[in-house]
Amino acid sequence: xxxxxxxxxxxxxxxxxxxxxxxxxxxxVGDDVYREDPTVNTLEERTxxxxxxxxxxxxxxxxxxxxxxxxxxxxxxxxVICEARGHLLNYELSMxxxxxxxxxRSIQTTDGILTWPMxxxxxxxxxxxxxxxxxxxxxxxxNMAGGTVYAQEVIDEICDRAHERGIPVHMDGARVFNAAxxxxxxxSQICAKVDTxxxxxxxxxxxxxGSMLAGPKNLIDQGRLYRKRLGGGMRQAGILAAAxxxxxxxxxxxxxxxxxxxxxxxxGLAAIPGILVEPEIPATNIVIFDVSATGKSSQEISAALxxxxxxxxxxxxxxxxxxxxxxxxxxxCETALAALGEAVAA
Length: 346
Prior knowledge:
Blueprint: E1 6-7, H1 18-26, H2 38-51, E2 55-59, H3 62-73, E3 79-83, H4 87-90, H5 95-98, E4 103-107, H6 116-120, E5 133-139, H7 152-164, E6 169-172, H8 176-183, H9 187-190, E7 196-200, E8 211-215, H10 217-229, H11 238-249, H12 255-270, E9 276-277, E10 286-290, H13 298-306, E11 310-311, E12 313-314, E13 319-323, H14 330-345
Parallel strand pairs: 1-11, 3-4, 3-5, 5-6, 6-7
Antiparallel strand pairs: 2-8, 7-8, 9-10, 10-13, 12-13
Helix pairs in contact: 1-11, 2-11, 3-10, 12-14
């Protein structure tokens, strides 16, 4: 069996670029728990500026960033509104319940995009039977909906109406720079009205590890304590932050290449009998496709692809997800398509 060389399972599989590796080797470091790591401090300052927030916090993972944000924005016993396929609900080991002692009130959508009319129906005041709404969370881009992007006016309306009711808004912006590239506007504008935003350095931006949480200084100061409680005091973390700085400054400039490759994949997949791409034209770098009409399960197709040197995972028995990224170029996507055609026809 050939060694898998085309990995489209996720953009988390990217390896640090040569420039990142050099920066990591040369990084100036100190003890970040004492706030003495100059590279971490620079990364936090630059992230706050890029996202248009007062302050930012370097955390090991996006899950930790979301966990800290929800904890800072809520009180125990409240509800958090989010989309039904959201990462916060489905892929973070129920941290909203475990750490923040809050219940998630989910809303099903067709495209992963919440609107204020959808949310308003689920907003609850504190009463004798219902827990009050403590926070609204939106995911931009939306992973399991196929990398869909919020329109700016939708984000702004959610924030404006929520803030009128005293409800904060958190953005899971793990791929917010993909959203910015697709929308043709700076990330700071996209998340201008949300209270807090988390972005990943280790997904589309290609850093080896790390995410950022940004928001008002008082919340980020509080979040730093929660990071410590969760075991996120990483000491000489400047080695990782050095790669994160390059990810933040350089890698957003090339994300349109991943989006073009995702469209190439979607177009090629749609031409394979039995495969249905949803949505037909991906907004960013994520392609979701249904394989039920092929007569094969996603597990069977995934195994057949692996034997051909391609890695793509199933979401469930009938759907699969391919994610384009820095480490797979156009030629790699074309090779993956050929392998998919063979796997389905075999």
